[in-house]
Amino acid sequence: MKKGPCIKEFNITPIAITDPPLLNAAGLHAPYALRIVVELVTDDNISGISEIPGTVEIEQALHECKHLIIGQDPFQTNKINDILTAYFGTDSSADRGLFPWDSRKLVHIFSALEVACLDIVGKIVNRPVVDLLGGKRRERVPFAAYLFYKYEGAGGELAFDTDPNATGWAAARQKSALNPDEIVKQAKAMCKEFGFQSIKLKGGVFEPRQEVDAILALREAFGETMPLRLDPNALWTVETSIKYGLEMEGILEYLEDPCRGQENMALVRKALRTPLATNMCTTSFSDIPNSVKVGSEDIILSDHHFWGGLRESMNLTGICQTFGRDLSMHSNSHLGISLAAMVHLGAAIPNFRYALDTHYPWQSDEVITQGRFTFEEGSVAVPEGPGLGVELDKAALAKLHQNYLACGLTKRDDQVEMRKVIPDWEFKQTRW
Amino acid sequence: MKKGPCIKEFNITPIAITDPPLLNAAGLHAPYALRIVVELVTDDNISGISEIPGTVEIEQALHECKHLIIGQDPFQTNKINDILTAYFGTDSSADRGLFPWDSRKLVHIFSALEVACLDIVGKIVNRPVVDLLGGKRRERVPFAAYLFYKYEGAGGELAFDTDPNATGWAAARQKSALNPDEIVKQAKAMCKEFGFQSIKLKGGVFEPRQEVDAILALREAFGETMPLRLDPNALWTVETSIKYGLEMEGILEYLEDPCRGQENMALVRKALRTPLATNMCTTSFSDIPNSVKVGSEDIILSDHHFWGGLRESMNLTGICQTFGRDLSMHSNSHLGISLAAMVHLGAAIPNFRYALDTHYPWQSDEVITQGRFTFEEGSVAVPEGPGLGVELDKAALAKLHQNYLACGLTKRDDQVEMRKVIPDWEFKQTRW
Questions:
Q1: Closest Cβ–Cβ partner in B132, B316, B384 for A1
Q2: Cβ–Cβ of A285/B321 closer than 8 Å?
Q3: Please, what is the average pLDDT of chain B?
Q4: ipTM value of the model?
């Protein structure tokens, strides 16, 4: 039997993509979001790519493990996982951090390598990545509209400013959204452009009354058939979560991370009929036993960047099925490589009940040759090409890398950005 | 991208393989064990094979679903699983039955199809099946010596008789083993031939004192460095399990299914330091939540024929890792196709601590062109060829199918066989 190919190149490119001034529990999105694009190239010149959230620390760690990966066979992802685990050590739950995003090292790095390896394997065997996960259970993967409170502006070069020539969603997404009316306008423009069939509001920004009023306004505007979700990003107390949770009973499809910690989530869950979702209290396999013990959520919002890749996400799906949980997906600001990976995974999982999150409508850059993905009725077709089905646009990559060098950001810090607007603003683990 | 191949042939061949008169909790092995060999052939004439335990009922169910499988793409195992689940319905825990083996329908049938599909996929992509599970974590997979109380005889044509010309293990395995001395002799002959580094005694045959004495005799004969296991197949009460469990503390590597049911197992587990293993109380994903709740075992002895194939077994591995359980493997009388699948899976799983079970030394037939697998120091090398790395020997298959037709057996019924020796023998769920 033919010996496997081996990885001869491991290219690591930090990029900065324009990101509007979106508000969230941790503060304010900077004008650029950082991502890292990884490209692995085999000795027979097959290239596999992936995209993960970017920080200088993760970038350095990728460089650090390069020598361990060069020469490996991209089919041997178990071995690569073991090598990285031995080198970096297993992440602890504490490494995740308190913010809505995840700061663990090993899961990010292995995710970057595994997705790029599966892209290579898919190309070698002339099959889409979804077929490496057992094959498609659906042709299209549904996403939800992801609404944000935001300041005026479009991010990037246009930060805190607007493009007067934009039309449609490109115009609408530049506008401020700081009250229920503006949130409804944002939702209408986004749903018109992308056809989303469900809506999430990123909360944890204003006091709960105002955010609940925005949900009620969305209900009024879209009617009973549009599933609604609210994500206060763990800033509410248990009492607040129950109080407003009860008010929104029958209106929310799910309530996401109203409060912090599995035990608190479990208290809220006992008090509500509305399902609870999380990407903050149950975020790794080591969190699962206590999640099962206390019953902290109904839906795990997985993220293959944080759970260690696509096969581990399939394992998580199995755990969710076994323990009567649903699985949907979490998102950060991202481009089409991450979206492609999410779509392949989303097409393979069983019991798909909740449209996935994506920040994609908020970005305008792209790093793949096919350009921006299109959504129809809120869903994305599984890319047909072999592997991920997307190819790296080297010129776009170079430009976005220049943005990275120019913007001077080294990690996501929404508090720093927020203080540019509100100087004494401070992140709080629990606010209301 | 090239469209996938499709399955054009689905061949189902029940076979009977010679099996010695082995004693166990359910009675006595018949002179033949029944297996079913499944062969799928694609439209471009790539053949994939698998082997599962055989009953007329399973054979009929395979024929029944043939029309659903013909025309499917072997890469689309998720879809095939969904089709079969829709057709047959999900197995219930009760469908498993009370015997040491498993009587569920869907898991057997999907396992047969998934393994054959992965064999095809491996051949198409020119990779061993283990690479479809993320690749090898070890080059060789260790197995344990599997000792049985038995009557004189070698099974098959030679049932209840011996071959006077046999030598070595072939001679030793014909001998009776009905007391500690004979068990030690069996162990020595088997370990000499196969190099096994750990030993399991199938118990649940004689009253506990005698079986514990056999363990003590093995300890005496092999010393402290040889890990020992005893499997009373759930026939002991909780009290008996604790009493003899305490006596064997520090002597057993694990105690397997001393008593019946997760709650009883949990009681025994609390009373002992010796790890408990099971293939009887936690045997499906639907059993996992209560296993976690009550803490019924330390080690799940999986069996890809009973857990729905190789990818589901990888999911089970993830669950075991997540909940601090170990995973090893259960066996029934089988040939080299099943062994090959076990070895590919065994090479991929993380945290391999316990050598796997196999009945393979008790069989002498084979259905693959390479002939019988060889063991070195108790372990089997991962087959190198693409797919499972074994090819169907059509002449051997035909002969074993003739055995099936001639022997008249339609399912495994160890009580019927036992009554040929002890007319009033009766299976009991709990005996001592």
A1: B384
A2: yes
A3: 95
A4: 0.93
Instruction: Give tens-digit pLDDT for A47-74.
Output: 999 999 999 999 999 999 999 999 999 9
Residues of B in contact with A350 (CB under 8 A): 78, 82
Task: List CB contacts of A167: < 8 A, sequence separation 6 or more.
Answer: none
Place of tokens 């069989």: B363
Q: How far is CA B314 from CA A283, A359, B319, B320, B326, in A?
A: 20, 32, 9, 10, 13
Can you read off the two tokens belonging to residue A259? 């409060």
Interchain proximity A289–B322, CB inside 8 Å: yes
CB neighbourhood size of A421 (10 A): 13
Between the CA of residue A384 and those of A114, A129, A349, B12, what are the distances in Å?
A: 20, 10, 18, 34
pTM value is 0.95
Vertex B172: Cα angle to B169 and B176 (nearest 5):
150
User: In the 8-state DSSP scheme, what is residue A120?
Assistant: H
Neighbour count for residue A370 (Cβ, 10 Å): 15
